[in-house]
Amino acid sequence: MLNRLLVAGAMLLAFGAMTVNTQARSLDEIITSGTVRIGVNPNQPPSSSLGKTNEYEGFDIDIGNRIAEAIGVKVEFVPTESAQRVPFLVADRIDLSLGALTRNPERAKLIDYTVPLHTEATSVLTTDKLNITSWKELNDPKYTIVNQRGNNSVGFLKELLPNVNVLLVETTADVVRALAQGRADALVENIDFFLGTTKSYPDVKWKVLPEIIDVAYDGIGVQKGNDSLRLFLNVLLYNMHSSEFVNQTWEKWYGAPPVVKIVPNPYF
């Protein structure tokens, strides 16, 4: 959590002087133009990436197509790396941003969010070989936790679990392989992104500790003050959650249900 705030704060400072506010297109203007511009991260499968046919595919792409269908326009997916999402909104280069945009106060100074689209749940993924009931029990040199190099959690886990051994690997598949092969005891991270890969090891008895360490809520970002678009998206998201479209789309791409589901709320 601390690292998330630090990253967001650095982003605020880095882009505060670089971006110039350009008036966002209202919902009516998007409808008139016939196209909605949606920011997605093309290097974040299965959220979004270029598939074998060189077309975008993934969870965010299905969500984006559903949004465009509901507005009644065509969709233009605009590639945005993580650090570009907020500046692209501020500069009106996109109408809305997907790409696992975690809500936090620093970003909320620059953009507006819809109600949550999905969550990011930090918990413990392990196997039946590890007999613990809380993540804090991992603070012991007899244990090894594995993580993906570059994840935000790598930093704060060093502070919260200073005694545990840490094995850093390069990919999601490497993380799950290390657990399956017994080279590590547990993963402490946003485990939604790893659960689907556990199916590659059907003989391993996987388990997720019921304790949720942290839940981040990811909304759809729009330019600050673009209430006509934000309120439309809120209504659409209520319908997409109530109909289970979001959860079913998530499970289609991530291979498992969300660890923490969004509870639809008609009051926003």
Could you estimate the helical fraction of the residues in percent?
A: 25-40%
Q: Provide the residue-averaged pLDDT.
A: 90
Number of strands: 12
Q: Radius of gyration, rounded? A: 19 Å
Order of helices and strands: HHEEEEHEHEHEEHEHEHEEHH
- Label the overall shape: elongated
The proportion of residues in beta strands is: 15-25%
Task: Summarize the main sheet.
Answer: 7 strands, mixed
Distance between the termini: 26 Å
* Helix-strand category: alpha/beta
Number of helices: 10
| Low-pLDDT regions | 1-14
Task: Explain this structure.
The structure is a single chain. With 268 residues, this protein is α/β, with parallel strands linked by helices. The protein contains ten helices and twelve strands. The strands form three sheets. Strands 1, 5, 6, 7, 10, 11 and 12 form a seven-stranded mixed β-sheet that branches. A three-stranded antiparallel β-sheet has the order 2-3-4. The two termini are 26 Å apart.
How would you summarize the topology of this molecule?
Elements lengths: L1 H15 L10 H7 L1 E6 L2 E2 L3 E3 L5 E2 L1 H13 L2 E6 L5 H6 L5 E2 L7 H4 L2 E17 L16 E5 L4 H8 L4 E5 L2 H9 L5 E5 L1 H4 L10 E3 L5 E10 L3 H16 L2 H10 L14
Parallel strand pairs: 1-5, 1-6, 8-9
Antiparallel strand pairs: 2-3, 3-4, 6-12, 7-10, 7-11, 7-12
